[in-house]
Design brief:
heterodimer, A: alpha+beta, 2 domains, two-stranded antiparallel sheet, 12 helices, 48% helix, disordered N terminus, B: Rossmann fold, five-stranded parallel sheet, four-stranded antiparallel sheet, binds adenosine-5'-triphosphate, binds magnesium ion, ATP-binding (chain B), ABC_transpr_LolD-like (chain B), ATP-binding cassette domain-containing protein (chain B)
C-alpha cells in the first residue's frame, strides 16, 4: 500500500462526493438561488442582445467590404480616415500593381449616393465602382452581371448595375432604371446579388466609368461629361504572391491596409464598435461582481454547515468542489436562460433592425458570461476552505 | 483496538482566552465497552472528545486509535480518519439545515464514499432504532430538539465506526427515552466492539455504561496565560 499514513487503512476508501448535498442545498434555498439565477439571466440576456446588435450593426456597416474577395486595399497615403471616401488613386497606381499581380489587382470606387427608379422608388445606395469582369464583380442571384447591356449582349460597355438584395426588397427589379438625384445620371438594374451594405446603406455595384461620372459629377453640368479616371483604391489579392507592400507603398505614395483594417474606413464602424464593446466590457465586469457578492454572503451564512461537513470528514478540496458545483449550476442555468431570452428578443425584432446572433456566437458569449460569473465566486473559495470543524464544539443551532 | 491517550497536553484559545485544559493526561478507553466521561461543566469533556475525534490536535502527547497516532496526522489525514473510522455526535448543531433526517445519514455515507442508493433502507432502519421511523422526511426545523439529537446519534452509529464519540446524548430527552438511547449505545458497542466514549451529566447514561472516567481537565478559575507565561 502506498498512501500516506498507512496505519489509517483498515476502512480506507476513496472519498465520496458531496455533489448530492450541494444540489440538496440549492433545493432548500431555491428562493435565493432563483433570485441569483435571474440576475445572471438578465445580465446574460443583455450581453447576448448587445452582442447581437454588435454583429448586426457590424454587418450593416461592412458586409459589402467583407463580401469583396480582396485581401488588401491600397489607398492614397494622404487619406487618413474614411479612406474609401477621401482616397483617390489613379491608373498609374493600378498599372504598377497589375505589373506585379496581374488580374489580382482591380480598381474599386466607393461612394454613397441616392436615386429614384422609373417606378418612383427612392433608394439610398452605396455605389461600388468596379471593372466589369474583375475579381470584384459580385455573383448575381438573378439577372446579369455588372456591365451587361440591354440584355442581349453581355459586354463591358454596358451600364448595367447589380444591386444588393436589400435594395431589391424595397421593390426595385431587374430592368428598372435608376436616376441619380440632382445629377440626372441614369443606370439600369441588370442583376441582384446577396444582402450587402456599407455604412448602413445597401450596396450597388456599378461599372467603374459610371461610378466615376457619379463621383465627380457637378450638379447642373452635362451628365455625359468626361470624368477623371480615378477611384478610391486598388483592391488586391496578394495570396501567395511575393510582394513587399511597404516597398510598393513607398514607390507609389499609397497606404495599403488589410481588408479587416479597411473596415475601420467604413463610416461609423469604429464608433459603433467602441460603444458596443464598452457596454459589453461593463457587463462582463458586473457579472462576476454580482455573482461573487451573492456567493460570499451565501458562504458566510453557511459557514457553520461547512464546519459540520469538515467535522464529518469532508476534505477541503471536496468542499471547494461542492461550492463550485453550486455556483456552476446557478451561473450555467442563468446564462442558458439569458441566451434564450436574447434569441427571443432577436426573433421578436425581426428584420426591421440590424440584429444578428448566430448560434455559435451566442454559445460563445454565454459561455464567457458563465465563465466570468464563475470566476467571481473564486473570491469566496478561501472562506470555504477556512471553515473550521472545531467550531462544532461551540455550535449553538 | 483501543483508544489510548498519553502525555496529552491541550491548550485552547489564544491570547487572553488561552486556557490550559489538560496537562500530561494519560487515559485508556477499551474496545467493546462504553466509557462514561463525567465531570462538572467546563472540566474538558467536549475537549477530550475533540482530541479523540481528530478534530483538535493536542499540543503534546499521543492519541492512539489502534496503531494510528491521531496527534501525528496532518489535516487531510485527520479528515480521512473522521469520515472513515469515527462516529461523532456533537453537543449541538449536528444537522445540515437543507436535509431530511434520512439524508443526514446518507450525507455521512456520501462523504465516506459509500453508494448511498443502497444505504437508503439502512438509513431508515437506523432512524427507526432511535425511535424516529415516523420522521424520515423531516428536516431539522421540523424536528424537536430531542429528535434532532436522536438523528445525530443515528448518524454517528450509521457507518459502524471504530470509535464512537457522543457528547451529551440525553440533554434534551425524557428519562425513558434516555434509558433507551443508553441501551442502544451499549448494545451497538458490545455488538461491534467499537471504542465508545460518552460525555454526560446524566445518571441514566452513567448507569448503563461499562466504565466511568472523571474528566481531569483543569478547572483553574485563573486564565492559563498567567501560569504559562512563567512556565
Ligand atoms: N475556544 C476556546 N478558547 C478558550 N477556552 C476554551 C475554548 N473552548 C473551551 N474552552 C475552555 O475549556 C474548558 C473545557 O471546555 P469543554 O467544552 O471541554 O468543557 P465540558 O466539560 O465539555 O463542559 P460542558 O459540560 O459544559 O459541556 C472550559 O473551561 C472552557 O472555558
Ligand atoms: Mg461539553
Amino acid at each position: 500500500m502506498s498512501y500516506v499514513g498507512d496505519a489509517t487503512s483498515p476502512k480506507q476508501r476513496s472519498e465520496g462526493s458531496t455533489v448530492f448535498l450541494a444540489l440538496l442545498e440549492i433545493r432548500a434555498a431555491r428562493g435565493r438561488f432563483l433570485l441569483m439565477g435571474s440576475v445572471v439571466m438578465l445580465v446574460a440576456a443583455l450581453v447576448g442582445i448587445v452582442s447581437g446588435f454588435t454583429t448586426g450593426l457590424g454587418n450593416d456597416t461592412v458586409s459589402a467590404l467583407r463580401g469583396l474577395p480582396a485581401t488588401h486595399f491600397a489607398f492614397s497615403a494622404d487619406a487618413k480616415s474614411d479612406q474609401f471616401n477621401r482616397s483617390l488613386v489613379d491608373d498609374r497606381t493600378l498599372r504598377a500593381w497589375r505589373d506585379r499581380l496581374g488580374g489580382d489587382a482591380a480598381p474599386v470606387g466607393v461612394s454613397i449616393t441616392r436615386g429614384t427608379t422609373d417606378r418612383g422608388v427612392d433608394i439610398d445606395l452605396a455605389a461600388f465602382g468596379i471593372e466589369p469582369g474583375s475579381f470584384l464583380a459580385p455573383p448575381v442571384s438573378s439577372g446579369a452581371p455588372v456591365g451587361s447591356s440591354g440584355g442581349s449582349s453581355v459586354g463591358s460597355s454596358g451600364d448595367g448595375v447589380v444591386i444588393s438584395k436589400k435594395i431589391a426588397d424595397k421593390g426595385v427589379r431587374v430592368g428598372d432604371t435608376v436616376t441619380i438625384d440632382r445629377f440626372g445620371i441614369t443606370m439600369r438594374v441588370a442583376g441582384i446579388t446577396g444582402a450587402r451594405s456599407y455604412g448602413h446603406v445597401p450596396a450597388a455595384y456599378l461599372p467603374l466609368e459610371l461610378w466615376q461620372r457619379i463621383r465627380f459629377a457637378v450638379p447642373g453640368a452635362d451628365p455625359g461629361a468626361e470624368a477623371p479616371r480615378q477611384f478610391s483604391a486598388v483592391a488586391l489579392r496578394t495570396g501567395g504572391a511575393d510582394v513587399s507592400l511597404a516597398e510598393m507603398d513607398a514607390a507609389l505614395g499609397t497606404k495599403t491596409v488589410s481588408r479587416e483594417g479597411a473596415f475601420e474606413a467604413a463610416p461609423g464602424y469604429s464608433g459603433e464598435r467602441i460603444t458596443m464593446t464598452s457596454i459589453q466590457v461593463f457587463l462582463f465586469l458586473i457579472a462576476p461582481l454580482v455573482v461573487g457578492a451573492f456567493f460570499s454572503v451565501w458562504t458566510v451564512q453557511r459557514t457553520p454547515e461547512l464546519a459540520l461537513l469538515r467535522a464529518l470528514g469532508a476534505s477541503r478540496p471536496r468542499l471547494l468542489w461542492h461550492s463550485t458545483v453550486q455556483a456552476a449550476v446557478v451561473v450555467a442555468a442563468g446564462a442558458a436562460c439569458g441566451g434564450l431570452v436574447a434569441l427571443g428578443v432577436g426573433a421578436a425584432l425581426g428584420d426591421a433592425v440590424p440584429f444578428s446572433l448566430p448560434a455559435s456566437t451566442l454559445a460563445a458569449t454565454m459561455a464567457a458570461v458563465a465563465g466570468v460569473g464563475l470566476a467571481g465566486t473564486a473570491l469566496t473559495l478561501r472562506r470555504v476552505t477556512s471553515a473550521d470543524p472545531l467550531t462544532m464544539l461551540g455550535a449553538h443551532r | 483496538m483501543s483508544l489510548a491517550l498519553s502525555n496529552v497536553t491541550v491548550t485552547r484559545g489564544r491570547n487572553e482566552t488561552r486556557t490550559a485544559v489538560f496537562a500530561d493526561l494519560d487515559a485508556e478507553f477499551p474496545a467493546g465497552k462504553v466509557t462514561a466521561l463525567v465531570g462538572p461543566s467546563g472540566s474538558g469533556k467536549s475537549t477530550l472528545l475533540a482530541v479523540a475525534g481528530a478534530l483538535l490536535r493536542p499540543d503534546r502527547g499521543t492519541v492512539r486509535l489502534g496503531d494510528v497516532d491521531l496527534a501525528a496526522l496532518n489535516d487531510a489525514e485527520r479528515a480521512r480518519m473522521r469520515r472513515t473510522r469515527i462516529g461523532y455526535m456533537f453537543q449541538s448543531g449536528n444537522l445540515l439545515t437543507a436535509l431530511t433526517a434520512t439524508e443526514q445519514l446518507l450525507a455521512a455515507a456520501y462523504i465516506a464514499g459509500h453508494r448511498p442508493r443502497r444505504e437508503r433502507r439502512r438509513a431508515a432502519d437506523a432512524l427507526a432504532a432511535v425511535g424516529l421511523g415516523h420522521r424520515l422526511g423531516h428536516r431539522p426545523d421540523q424536528l424537536s430538539g430531542g429528535e434532532r439529537q436522536r438523528v445525530a446519534l443515528a448518524r454517528a452509529l450509521f457507518l459502524d465506526p471504530d470509535l464512537l464519540l457522543i457528547d451529551e446524548p440525553t440533554a434534551a430527552v425524557d428519562r425513558t427515552l434516555a434509558a433507551d438511547l443508553a441501551d442502544l449505545i451499549s448494545e451497538r458497542t458490545h455488538a461491534t466492539g467499537c471504542v465508545t466514549v460518552v460525555a454526560t451529566h446524566d445518571p441514566v447514561v452513567t448507569a448503563a455504561a461499562d466504565t466511568e472516567l472523571v474528566c481531569p481537565g483543569a478547572l483553574s478559575p485563573r486564565p492559563a496565560a498567567d501560569t504559562s507565561a512563567t512556565g
